[in-house]
Design goal:
The structure holds 2 protein chains of 2 kinds. By secondary structure, chain A is α+β, with helices and mostly antiparallel strands. In chain A, 25% of the residues lie in helices and 32% in strands. Chain A folds into 2 domains: 229 residues, Rossmann fold (3-Layer(aba) Sandwich); 93 residues, Beta Barrel (OB fold (Dihydrolipoamide Acetyltransferase, E2P)). Chain A has 8 helices and 18 strands. In chain A, strands 6-7-8-3-9-10 form a 6-stranded mixed beta sheet, with helices on both faces. A 5-stranded antiparallel beta sheet of chain A has the order 13-17-14-15-16, with no helix packed on it. In chain A, strands 2-1-4-5 form a 4-stranded antiparallel beta sheet, covered by helices on one side. The radius of gyration of chain A is 24 Å and the shape is elongated. Helices cover 76% and strands 2% of the residues of chain B. In chain B, strand 1 and strand 2 form a beta hairpin. Chain B contains 23 helices and 2 strands. The chains are: A alpha+beta, B mainly alpha. The complex binds adenosine-5'-triphosphate and magnesium ion (MG).
Amino acid sequence: MSGIVIKDASRRFGSVQAVDHVDLTVEGGEFFTLLGPSGCGKTTLLRMIAGFCELDSGEILFGDTRIDRLSAHVRNIGMVFQNYAVFPNLTVAGNVAYGLMARRVPADESARRVEEALALVQLSGFGERKPHQLSGGQLQRVAIARALVIRPQVLLFDEPLSNLDARLRVSMRGEIRALQKSLGITAIYVTHDQEEAMSVSDRIALMNAGKLEQVGVPADIYRKPASRFAAEFMGTTNLLEARQLGLAAPVWVSLRPEALRFADEAPADWPRLQGIVARVELLGPLTRIDVTLGSGTVIRMATLDAPHRAVAVGDAVTLAYEHARLTVVP
Amino acid sequence: MIGHQQRLPLTIAALGLLFLGVFLVWPLVNVFGASVLDSEGQSFTLANYVKMLGRPFYRAAIVNTLGIGAAATVITTVLAVPLAFSLARLPIPGKAAILALAAMPLVLPSFVSAYAIVLLLGNSGLLTVWLKGIGLDIGSIYGASGIVLVYTLTLYPYVLLPTVAAFKAVDVSMEEAAQNLGSSPARTVRTVILPIVLPAILAGALLVFIETLENFGVPFVLAEDLPIFAVEAFKLFIGETAPNPASAGVLATLLILTTVLVLLIQRHFLSSRRFATNARQTPPILKVGPGVRIVATVYCWTIVLLALVPFFAIVVLSFLEFRGPVLHGRFSLDNFATLFARDMRPLANTLMFASAAALCTGLIGVPIGYVVTRWRTGVATLLDVVATLPFAVAGTVLAIGFVVSFNAGPVILTGGPLILVLAYTVRKIPFAVRSAGAIVHQIDPSLEEASISLGRSPLQTFLRIVVPLMLGGIVSGVVLTWVTVASELSATVVLYSGPWRTMTVVMFQALEGGGAGIATAAASTLIVVTLIPVALLYRLVRRYELGS
Ligand SMILES: Nc1ncnc2c1ncn2[C@@H]1O[C@H](COP(=O)(O)OP(=O)(O)OP(=O)(O)O)[C@@H](O)[C@H]1O
Ligand SMILES: [Mg+2]
């Protein structure tokens, strides 16, 4: 299982530097995610690997082989598109067999592999259907089977779940991850949804304006953001100057809402903060509470739903936070 | 270095530009060259322009052509816009039939309509005689009035069809918003709906105008002594004996400049007022009283049927007995017998040329349409402009260019059949490119990328994915090309030779020679030849739509 090495890749469209000197190594068999806000260059980077977007400079290697000068159709890459891109004029089986035909796989072997691939995505028996007879989730499975069946060096996904409804998104991402692990195939996955990225990835590259902001395992990116951008993009946080918490150091810190508790529920050695409740938002399992501190700073905290605890706007409260979860951000 | 993704589009663009360069740009350059060289073709001179524009006769040709074009454009627009509104928004019985019938003048040859008008309303026309009998004198149909009448009857669909589509594409919520804001329905139409459909109306109207500038057959039949641009260019070219057709070159150049100017004005005007509306559903049929409904219904059916009366009349007349130009009321197949006893070649030629040209147009136009839609590079834009150019070139002018360019030198084509097929192909390429582009626009580019990532080269992807998905549109386009080529007159009369006469030439010669019997038979044959493929296509489309 060969990894992918991207060396100093750049691409500019007019005045937009879509990908800006990116260096990246994806290990063989890894589930690697490109995460970032809209327009940050994720798709462009993915399309460079697939061969649909040329590099202005830099190179891309599979193992030791340089591939960025190769035509897209000889790169042996499986790509899964946001809008499925299932050929509407072919049957499901025809779609899955398409790449095998291009490789001149004999008919009997091709039929067998198509069957296997359809079984893998739980679509056995759907081979003769036409795409317009399938649901969005089923179409995306066809697209995955079609990409898998050619035994590609790497599977690329560009926001494959964003056209599906919320529930299906959650179950499909689990399936994709399980499939990838069971086949041991290298996968690069693009999304702008941080929760999705956290849930499926071995490692995440967080992108911003064409540059890599931070690369690491999901827990590190969430808990040890390397920048203010990373801290804010990975979920709600309190970005504060340390002196707003009564600390002397002239630095910015990130404090996640779930690192705060009400004082009476917190260990005694956690630092305390006094304030007035400004807003209470019940989201179901979570309750979000905004508290205005004496200095005027608004601090956001989140607790699990607890019916016994009655908090109302205007209440004076004492909060405590876990000092170890305070992250200094540059 | 040429990127691997650019190879296919660049190859297509290069081949397309080569073809259009040789068979479009080169002839046009020669036409222009002829106009600025002396009669021996040696030295540069503007004397030809001075000479031509100095003659009142040719100045009159310019004024007549533009005046008739403007009149026809205004009248078609005034008639077609209410028709379009009625079809889009009012409860009219038989709408589908009306729309199908309204599209027919687009494929039927307009000079046949002109000829029918002569037979019915000409000096010794059937209706003229009959009306004289009951004491009515309708005056002369020849000259400007007759030409405008025929243009109106045959060209109104150019305004009607896009305008119907535009009325249907108006987002209902805009109307509702206007009414919510207290606007009366009439005011809503004027201030909200009309501005949205205006670009479509203008686009159609300018199509009509350009069509009138380029048309050769209708003025040829009806103009009599009135000088008209395209006809005079033809007459000059045929009559010119000097080695350099300078006078014809001047008229041809002026004609091209006029059409290009009109196209540029249209572009400028449309680009500044494009309203994007994305209607979620077609706007509702308005509730109107029975009075409005009856008036609208009568109006729609009258226009649509009136436009088809000349064609119907020709078919009926072709089965009656003529002696010379005089008609007898008896049923007879003599006209067809005479027509085909002489020679079946013209019919065979027409079928053959139309098939060859339709095939070539598809083979060249579809890849070009694909490239100009998918690749927005400088080369693609150049290709787009060049491929649209034939639209601004009258058939007569292109044909003159062909003769000047290919009767000597490295490529000699005059005197053979190929020159006709090539001229037809060049003339129809803009339509093929437009319609292919419109279909490609509907195809999601990620389908192509999926195919490429699965191991098919861009060329194979084009053939295996894009072409099958475009097939319905390609077939319709090829059939329409076939039909319009079969009744092409303006380039044909300049380029045909010896055994390579077509049905349109037979009819053209019969008109000149006064053989009304043969002319009607040839016209009927042309009508049948054009309607059969269209009817088959229509059935195919219907079945396809019902099937899926
Ligand atoms: N073909 C192109 N031509 C011009 N600009 C482009 C092209 N493709 C991408 N861009 C620009 O490059 C930047 C990065 O685009 P890209 O599609 O890679 O973003 P993305 O991270 O995938 O965003 P999203 O989450 O919205 O899909 C954007 O500013 C985009 O407008
Ligand atoms: Mg994207």
